[in-house]
Specification:
By secondary structure, the chain is mainly alpha-helical. The protein has helices at 4-14, 28-33, 37-46, 60-70, 84-87, 90-110, 116-127, 134-144; strands spanning 21-23, 49-51. It has a two-stranded antiparallel ribbon. The N and C termini lie far apart (95 Å).
């Protein structure tokens, strides 16, 4: 049975697209006999014709991807779009490095492995960008015999 006209009228009345109009398969005869907008309105009132809910985009895959990235996956060369500087800014990189260096220097001073003067000298060198990372700092301290 062709219900194209009824579906079109129902879509206008419900103010949705034709794809979102649901017609009860058990009441096809009643729908076929409905030829005016008022007839269609009555069928909508009685629940024979309904508006389907809007289909959303599922976030399941996005959530899974987020959890994988959080665990350190999906970050290889093939997944990268920007330069290293675009993915992590210069300043963020500097902040990570200097905080790690200062934390290590504080630990060394508090444990008594280096004295206050050495601490200040190394602190200023770190601030000047002399050390690439904590391992480099440790190697410098070892090479110059600053450890007690």
């Amino acid at each position: 049975m062709n219900l194209r006209l009824q579906k079109k009228i129902a879509a206008q009345v419900l103010q949705v697209g034709k794809g979102r109009v649901w017609i009860d398969p058990a009441a096809i005869e009643d729908v076929a006999n409905a030829i005016t907008k008022d007839d269609i309105r009555e069928l909508i009132q009685s629940g024979v014709i309904k508006r389907k809910p809007v289909k959303g985009t599922s976030r399941v895959r996005a959530r899974v991807r987020y959890l994988k990235k959080k665990a350190g996956r999906r970050r290889g060369h093939g997944s990268r779009k920007g330069r290293a500087g675009a993915r992590e800014g210069r300043k963020e990189h500097w902040m990570k490095r200097i905080r790690a260096l200062r934390r290590r220097l504080r630990e060394l001073k508090e444990s008594g492995e280096i004295d206050r003067q050495t601490y200040r000298m190394l602190y200023r060198k770190a601030k000047g960008g002399e050390f690439r990372n904590v391992a480099h700092l440790e190697a410098y301290i070892e090479a110059h015999g600053y450890k007690r």
